[in-house]
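This section describes the prediction task in plain terms. A model, or a person checking by hand, is given the sequence of a single protein chain and must write out its three-dimensional structure as a string of tokens. No templates, partner chains or ligands are provided. The sample shown here is typical of the held-out split.
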Amino acid sequence: MATIKDVARLAGVGLGTASRVVSGKGSVSNATLEKVKKAIEELDFRPSHAARSLLSGSSRMIGVYIPFLKGTFYMPILQSIDAQLRAAGLHMVVAFGVGDGNPREQTIDGIDFLIERGCDGLIVMSNALHEEDIEALGAKKSQLVVLNHRYANIADQCFVADHYYGGRVAAQALLEKKHHKIAVIAGPASAPDNVDRISGFMFEMEQAGVDVSTMWIAESNFAPDGGWASAKELVDSNYEFSAVFCANDEMAVGALSYFQHVGINVPKDVSVIGYDDTETAAYSAPRLSTVHIAWREMTTNGLSYLLNRCYDMELPVEREYSVRMTWRSSLEKSNKGGKKAR
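The expected answer:
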């Protein structure tokens, strides 16, 4: 495999001159430029990633941290980032939480991993960091973007959806279908976006005159097994309900599966709605009505902002994203009294 030294030797120029042509930095005469280009073509020279990094002072890599690599939520986000980076001639490095540490420790370790590999910029999806952790990044703090959480000390670098409004949209959908006997399967209380969507949901219900103090609510884990377990707990209780709001689609799919398992028909007996509008929602049985959050648009704009900072690009950046209801077959008008739990 040809090296930059081979290119310089064939072109009859110094190594520094050949390096300037390859990196695109520094001036050379047109005649020298043509000689080096001809040598590159004859040798089929392709600089390695490490060589390009040394020549340009940039790794051309963006690091992405996500809490875990499972389920259906993060994969489309990673695919969106990778497609945008490849279109710009850049590459993605992914880290996720591993080990026995708590979420904060795992996030810090993941960010350190990405920095050690020379990533030019970082995209982080985590609410576990403290503001002092961000300050500890030093100069690297300016090349950081956070998705789905806002930190006050880098507010302009944070890209978030309006989850409080998303919770209100979920409540409005159930109220429109005359549901008042409602159960809620919430995500972890430690997740601010979950708190926002549940708060918005309860506010809208209260505004409609629903007594939320008696509403059945369970805290779960944002995963299908949590939706299944919470649905079982609900069915085994004495609570009467005609609809269930799940704080994300994965729990909603778990709940749908449990209802089918015990012979509860959705939506004839009970309506179910989710949140996020992931690809899974469109192919569940029945197809899941859910609150649409524009995750792809939020991700694209956050990445565009980061590329502008890291590579002096001039990509457009927007900060308002669609939040709306996606109507499918898991939600119908309330029946007379609701499902009486066993």
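For orientation: The first strand starts at residue 61 and ends at 66.
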